[in-house]
Design brief:
Largest sheet: 2 strands, antiparallel
Protein name: EF-hand domain-containing protein
Number of helices: 3
CATH superfamily: EF-hand
Shape: globular
Structural class: mainly alpha
Helix content: 55-70%
Order of helices and strands: HEHEH
Number of domains: 1
CATH architecture: Orthogonal Bundle
Strand content: under 5%
InterPro entries: EF-hand-dom_pair (IPR011992)
Amino acid sequence: MMVDVLLEEDDKSLASSPGLEDGNVLLTEQARKMFLLCDHNGKGFVVKMDLARIDGMIPNISQQQLELFFDNADIFKTNYITENQFIENIRPMLLRSAFSDSYLRKTEVSFLFQQCIH
């Protein structure tokens, strides 16, 4: 199962524009859903082993990158992270993944188009 992150992209958008706010809301919702998948027991936190439940869901993100994400989010070295820590730290990964995936699709379409016209 892959997670699609839908974001509106506009180079001239200001931080207060509705499109960007909608994108932030969608990104946070996706992050929260992923947290809930990891926290299947409803403990209110996740441990590193829980990340296996979302392995493969974020395009271009490996299990090692998820573990590194966890280590960086666990700033107090308690071996667990809260929902807020999870969301704040996974959002940049989701955003990068969404943009790199979008870039790859655009490149692929461009390549196919070039093949069709030659």
